[in-house]
Target: dTDP-4-dehydrorhamnose 3,5-epimerase
Amino acid sequence: MQIEPTPLSGVFILTPARHGDARGFFSESWNRRTLSQAGVDLPDFVQDNHSMSMQVGTLRGLHYQAPPHAQGKLVRCGRGSLFDVAVDARLGSPTYGQWFGAELSFENGRQLWIPAGFLHGFVTREPDTEIVYKCTDHYDKASDGAVAWDSLAIDWGVSDPLLSDKDRAAPAFADWTSPFTHEAQA
Model:
């Protein structure tokens, strides 16, 4: 597995090897031992999610789940392609408010590890794009939240995305109080 650090501490791009032949390929998308041997120790996963967006330009995010149910996510694209974004929301972090984005697609097989304490969002680049992700905590409606997708100068590559009512009503990053601290994520 190829492991690439990003400018945001704790956020990694993980690209599993694909072993293919005329029938297709096999890929081990996550292996605790392989990552641990490479110095990347991820928390336990308790939930897998699968989302499909039919239209190009569907934007979901920026989402988070507040403590005590904060979620880390290992995100990959099962079909199509998307631009996936992590935003450091840990108060006191040297990269607080900074974002990192990566193209994830079925073709490139890349995954993005986003620890708890980060906002997460993505925009689809192809029709019928599927995103699959593992979570480190169960969904908790009372802890669920969102920050406005357009409040951090992220270059999403779209000007008029398809949004949910929740995302349309989300507060701007500057008007939002983060429930995360850098020290809690150490």
User: Anything to note?
Assistant: Residues 32-37 form the longest helix (6 residues). The two ends are 25 Å apart (CA to CA).
